[in-house]
Amino acid sequence: MTPALPAAAPPVRRLLPGPDTPVLATRPLRPGTRADDLSLFGEDRWNLTPGFFQEHTSRTCVDFHDAPAAFRLPIKLLAWLMLNHQDADHGGFLPGIPRPAVRTVVPYCRYLKSFAHWLENRGITRFGQVTDTDLDAYAADIKDAAVSHELREDFLAVVVRTWTLRDLLPDEDDRLPQAPPWNGERIQDILGQRRTSEENRTPRIHPATMTPLLKWALRFVEDFADDIIAAFDEYKTLSLRARAASTRSAAPPGKQRRPPGTVPLLVAELADDYRARGLPLPGRRSADGHTTINTHFLSLQLGVQITRAAASTLAHSGLPVADDTYLTTPVHGLLDNEPWLTTRITYDQAPVLARHLSTACLVIVGYLSGQRPGETLNLERGCVEHDPVTGLILLRGKHWKGVRHPDGALRAEGEQRTDPWVVTAPVATAVTVLQRLHDARLLFPNTLLVNGKSEAGPLRERVGRARNDSGCNKDITELIGWINDYCAARHRDDAIPADPTNPKIALSRLRRTLAWFIARRPRGLVAAAIQYGHVRVNMTLGYSGNYASGFPDDLAFEEWLARLESLAEAHDQLQAGEHVSGPAADTYRHRVAASAKFTGRVLRTTREAHTLLTNPDLQIFPGQGMTCVLDPARAACRLSTDERSSRRTPDIDDCRPSCVNIARTDRDIDFLRTRVDTLQAIVDDPLAPPIRHAREQHELARLQQVIANHQEPRP
User: What string of DSSP letters covers 394-426?
Assistant: First the structure.
């Protein structure tokens, strides 16, 4: 957004850093931050990660090495001031401007370095040398740049933001001219285009992809989870032994040695155990395709190193050798009444399946809760509660969107939601599975234990913290790949097809897709209330507890699009000669004709979507065998309202045949004819109970009269 120009105010007190001043000198720091984690002003690469409290945030740095040498120090000083300066009198960043979030400084530095490079190419080495002519030329170049309009606005907004900081800089030569850039003209006027990024442009996941993805995620959680968790527990025990063996340089002092001959006895007992359970010995295949006994795995099972002589005894035991190293955990889960795996899970498969199970839980929780990705990834153990009074399942956690300090600045720490998310049983089941799968505080930790290690290289800084967005997107892709390979190997026809609009299934798309499913399902809000476990329809309108969740805004956009598509189809049908009958037929034709004026309408904000949804010309609601042309004052059904009380919707399931808001199209009559055929079969059945026969005969006669009225001579 274009920063507002501050009103004239007394000079602000300058706060200047030295080379050893911490970069995040006045910012709250993430719990557990050490002093050596903090970057200093004199360094040319700043680590801003300690200023982020969301557990899924990756390491975030700002690098000044690529800044022009002449501008490097003033750019660093400007960035430091954005991070740390607070106006003593007003409590904000500058009078009328709240202090920006730490995350905002990252693109600010990137765009400011671009501006500095542009100045350097024009022979300018100090901000104080910039003239109005230079700024006009820069604006012209940005306007012609082959980038998005939003990015053009950001490039110019950085210049305005830099100008607002001029009085904080100690050297006059480092300050932009005193007059506001471009005489204070709005950036959208300079570029001749208005920013439209307020509209939710997150692409939905196609139903052909989302439906099987959710189905398979539920299978993992409900059918496969017990087998995967049991195998992963066995894997963790063995891998920890392997880790201990690889790091042990000598036997601990005072440890007693095993008596001579103990290892052969233990090996013989292990072989007898395999024989008694009818299991082959674990094997491993060499490069030439030859299978040998995996004595390393057997050593992990016994907790002792198997000697060469003991290995020879195993080789001559007569036990078969498997083609892989299978864990001893049996497979009990069923898929279509058959075991979902024909063999036990191997040692190498266990961590992979554990990761897929965690990802399946992520899909269920992220999709069926309507949370933002960051809210899902920051959930902790014990976040699910069952309200004994209402019977609702509540999901508690933190949120950050719109959480601000009194001065208007964003609160980096976020806050615990006062109103929890209302979720369904599958979400609670997924949370329970995650709590069984690992012991981490977060439900979605950055990494699960693999080969006895809980950290690996670049992940070390984030061990114990949440997975980030990009990691989750990769995990979803790998889960889909595993499912499709599984289906191909078993000749199943329920694989997950690629999304035709965008093959990358990102975590951020789940929330928008949920809104689409609710808005587009037959009797959408009622279906959502049933499928997603809500007690009342208006809980969907206030999804996730209240309107502050933001989910109803996504829903409003989807309802608007669905309403326009329905009206466009109705308009085409009328133009093709479709007949309409019923008491509201004339109103129906008038509203459908009037709806054409909304074609091509661009929605820029959620407020516009809510406003347009209340427009009388859009109050047409298709039902089953009827169409409601809503006039709230004359409606015979019980109407529903949203939390803002801005619009009222009919209860299509409670439609009364005598209601004057009913219109019937040829498509509605086709549906009624199908219903008449069904009722006729019941009425013609001599074995039908008398009471049912009479009831259905009455309904049959009513529908036949409706159809006859529709077929009367037309003008």
Answer: EE--EE-TT-B-TTS-B-TT-EE-SSPEEE-HH
